[in-house]
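#onboarding

Welcome to the new folks! Below is a worked example of what a typical request in this channel looks like: someone posts a single protein sequence, and someone else replies with the predicted structure as tokens. Don't worry about understanding the tokens yet, we'll cover that in week two.

Example request:
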Amino acid sequence: MADSSQTQDELVFLPLGGCGEIGMNLNAYGYGPPEARRWILADVGVTFGNDDTPGIDLICPDPDYLIGEHIDAVFLTHAHEDHIGAIGLIYPRLQTKAPIYATPFTAELVRSKMNERGVDTAALKTISMGSTIQAGPFEVTYVTLTHSIPEPNALAIRTPAGMIMHTGDWKIDPDPQIGSSTDIAGLTAIGDAGVLAMVCDSTNVFEEGESGSEETVRQGLIELIAAQKTGAVAVTTFASNVARVKSIVDAATQADRHVCLVGRSMHKITNAAKAVGILPPRLEFVDESEAGHFPPEHILYLCTGSQGEPRAALSRIAKGDHRNVTLREGDTVIFSSRQIPGNERGIFALQNGLAEQGIRVITPRMVPQKIHVSGHPCRDELRRMYQWVRPKISVPVHGERRHIMEHAAYARSLQVAEAVTPRNGSLIRLAPGPAEIIDHVPAGRLFLDGNQLVPEGAQGLQERRKLSWSGIIFATVSIDTHANLVDGPVIVVKGFSEPDGRLADEGLEVLDEVAEKAVTGMKRKDRLDDEAVERAIGRALRKAAETVYGLRPMIEVVVLRT
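Example response:
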């Protein structure tokens, strides 16, 4: 094979998501001349909406730069939402028939997602752990790692210009409870063969030591749950952590408690785990409708909602509006999870709501037992990975800017020769020559607004934000063809309150008066111009709303001609 340094062929890396945030991962690797690169993708994930994106639940990377490019394959490292959640949304936009490769558990969940979106699943190919796939100029081998979900994999990507190790999400867990432990021998052999670049998880780069083992959590949960002698117990954790789910079931069984799954994701994940043999097919749970018939000291509710999500099971239980499950004074809720940055307010509101009802809340910081460990590598684990793989280039991903910069500095301290700090849209040439950012391509976000994807700056979303901040005023006026005022202006407001908390009433009289004065004060010929009428009423209402209510609402004026 020709030496790539003597041709126009380049090996490039392009993150379109996951650099600048923890989540929404979409990574692309390209090989060939700039005008005719061949591409593979690693992961196609989502992030989630918040108070700043009213009505938006899912946000995904914009793949516009890759549309029409020659994509040879899509490789999925594991089944977390921030790595597979956008596959049903993004894959159709790519206008490709490239195969999508995933190991059995991941494929089971991806198939469901594609079916939900009406996307043909013919492209989805289920492969075994450790498989090697040829995709154009890329040869990709799945390398077994450990993480907080079954079947996590790194991708060893062989190219004519060198080897890339794409870690995906990982940690080093000597006893993960489910699945194999980290393939240290395989990683070391890859390092011995020579690695050009490692594209690596940065989530816990500021944390010293190691993340900890699921076996330690299992023992902690067994001890803690056994200590709850009275009342019902609810445990909330990430549904995707099947090892944790299994540990909680084991702990409940040893404490003579039956387990009831509560939450759609909990059922979905456990069913997928059963379907591929990760959990015993005959593992049975108490149905929600039957759980209330058990004595409280013999039931454990395993719930979604550890991040305070308002529509998740635990939040609905706390509010008392879950159709089947009720917690009472003297019951206990255990959080076997960590707070994801940005979710603190929702989590604290949930915990305070439970405490207000006399329900005991237990979090990892409150007990001596280990009841949660991270699924991402701390500094000692990162050091070991670099010692095994020994890349020439470090490319930190999966982190905010501060994580990526710190990871690059840490890699250099471990004698890695080069480190690049990408942002979403950074086109990085890995070979030939020194690693460097050679371009910045468009790398926006797409919001799932109802059933359609819209760009981040969509005008409808801007209006919705304004509505959520300051409300809206509707004004309807009827004017005949001779410019006579027939009816109105009729004023309707949404989102305004009186000082005593009632919906706005008295203050509307002022709005009525200024709107009418605005119309009657116009010259007759100007009242024949709809736009002039709209401007006059809108200007008057805007000024009055700010004076009376201190708000700057949206204003919609409708002119009817009779």
